[in-house]
Specification:
This protein is an alpha+beta fold. It has nine helices and 16 strands. Helix 8 crosses helix 9. Bound molecules: zinc ion (ZN).
Length: 326
């Protein structure tokens, strides 16, 4: 593993000062000098490890920041239903998303103030019988995934048309329901939408093409998790390029050995979260890394996903938590 000097210093400090990493790496004597060569033997964590040790994985210098109110939490649940609280500093969270925002700006001319809608599970606490969406801010609405049905498709069409979003973040299965319902009812897609970002599930090439054809706009596939934010996004050739400035991606076999070639479990290291460091963390997804150069000309690793996660749904203490990384 190739790390720069700052990463060597930071990760070795994590193994020497964070309780959970200290426990897992006992007797390894990890230093700034040897961390690169020891990397493949460093412990691999999964969600259960983190859930069971949430208060033992904060980088000590970050605790003071928490007292100053410069940290915040996001929550994720996923398929296992285990609630995971991820702590970020505002600066790290912004840095973590900067490469995804750069792609949105460069390729689709999308910037944060633009009007957008996204789809997520409803919250029992704030969801009345008939509510199909929630206004998150002046420029964002969240449409509840459960309300996307053939019956409600005209309501959703009216809602999106009147809100006039410039872009959407949506799960492939949800946009498929919308497209077939709108086609059946003869409803045209709102003209305001110029970009659609698919996330949370695998997006096949025919599905992507169908969305592009129906909406007459550009579509990108984005793979990420609440724990580390964006991991990879698709290029013009349909390949998933790793967000190298945000994460290190590895593929490991069932014994935790690094797979240079071949399929295995995807394991990520956050390069940006310095409050709650995720080092060699298994996302629960499978795939493989491809080293050949893509015809789009971009360098760096390409990730081929084997199958996607079922997307997150969460209520913490009866309160809705926003799961999207917009
Ligand atoms: Zn490419």
């Amino acid at each position: 593993m190739q790390l720069n000097q700052d990463q060597k210093r930071f990760f070795s400090e994590c193994y020497n000062s964070i309780e959970l990493y200290q426990d897992l790496s006992r007797n390894m004597r990890i230093t700034e000098q040897n961390i690169e060569e020891l990397w493949d033997d460093l412990p691999i964590l999964d969600k259960t490890d983190i859930v069971n040790n949430q208060d033992r994985i904060i980088y000590p210098p970050a605790i003071a920041k928490n007292l100053n109110g410069t940290l915040h939490e996001v929550y994720t649940s996923g398929t296992t239903g285990e609630c995971l609280q991820v702590t970020w500093s505002y600066g790290d969270a912004r840095r973590s998303l900067s490469s995804l925002w750069a792609v949105r700006k460069q390729r689709f001319d999308i910037a944060p103030p633009e009007r957008m809608c996204f789809f997520r599970a409803s919250s029992r606490s704030c969801n009345s019988e008939k509510a199909i969406f929630e206004k998150v801010s002046e420029t964002q609405i969240a449409i509840y995934k459960e309300s996307v049905t053939l019956e409600s498709s005209s309501r959703i069409h009216n809602l999106i048309s009147s809100f006039s979003p410039v872009w959407m973040i949506v799960q492939p299965s949800i946009i498929q329901i919308i497209i077939s319902a709108w086609k059946e009812k003869g409803l045209k897609p709102p003209k305001s939408i110029k970009y659609i970002e698919c996330t949370g599930e695998m997006l096949s090439v025919p599905e992507k093409r169908e969305i592009e054809d129906f909406f007459g706009c550009q579509v990108m596939d984005q793979y990420g998790t609440m724990e580390v934010n964006s991991i990879a996004c698709s290029c013009e050739c349909g390949k998933m390029h790793v967000m190298d400035s945000n994460v290190i991606v590895e593929v490991v076999d069932k014994h935790g050995k690094t797979h240079r070639e071949g399929e295995g479990e995807i394991c990520v290291t956050s390069l940006t979260n310095r409050s709650m460091p995720f080092i060699r963390y298994k996302t629960g997804d499978h795939g493989r890394l491809v080293s050949k150069t893509c015809s789009c000309g971009r360098r760096g690793s390409i990730l081929e996903l084997s199958y996607g996660r079922v997307n997150d749904k969460l209520i913490v203490d009866g309160r809705e938590k926003y799961l999207y990384i917009v």
